[in-house]
Amino acid sequence: MSAIPHLIPLTEVQHLDPELWERCRFSLSSGGDDPKAWDKAVRTATVVLEERLRKLGKTEAINPDATGEGIVNIVFGKSSVLSGKLDDRQRESYRNLYAGMMAVFRNHYAHRIVDPSPEVGGAIIAFIDLLLKTLDDIDWGSDESEAL
User: Which domain does 43 fall in, by range?
Assistant: First the structure.
């Protein structure tokens, strides 16, 4: 039973990325059992991830209109700010992971009313939290603090 808080991160919200929790908690405070609240929270979580990628990858200077997978392609492209910091295989793996998130979840929630169950909504938010933490583990260079 001691593993449950680690398996269900939303029971321990202090472990979530602070910006992610700050943005999502308002939707969820209206009722954690309400699928409409989870729809809004997941949509917001995907935007938090997209914005973090945009800031870290400095995509505004390259293509300010980029969204979703376009941002991912800029951030993890061959001539990105990560060039020389990740080898080609790592960079491509990150690109595939984040592009998959954008295609499977971000696009779906951005363009439809989904109303997921609390379990599904929570799992997606926990996944986005993991993706945000994974971004924190990448060496973005000396001006990482400016990007955040």
Answer: 4-147
Sign of CA pseudo-dihedral 54, 60, 63, 65: positive
Cβ pair 52, 132 in contact under 8 A:
yes
CA atoms within 13 A on the CB side of 136: 9
Tell me the per-residue pLDDT of 111-136, one tens digit each, with 9 for 90 and over: 999 999 998 998 999 999 999 999 99
Q: How far apart are CA 58 and CA 34, in angstroms?
A: 36
What whole-number distance in Å separates Cα of residue 133 and Cα of residue 127?
Answer: 10
Number of domains within the chain:
1
Please tell me the distance from the alpha carbon of residue 21 to that of residue 40, in angstroms, as a whole number: 13
Angle at the Cα of 126 from the Cα atoms of 120 and 131, rounded to 5 degrees: 125
What single letter denotes the amino acid at residue 138?
Answer: I
Tokens linked to 124: 């997606």
Which pLDDT belongs to residue 8? 63
Q: What is the pLDDT of residues 32-73, one digit of tens each?
A: 788 889 999 999 999 999 999 999 999 999 999 999 999 999
* Alpha carbon distances (Å) from 35 to 27, 30, 116, 118: 10, 11, 5, 6
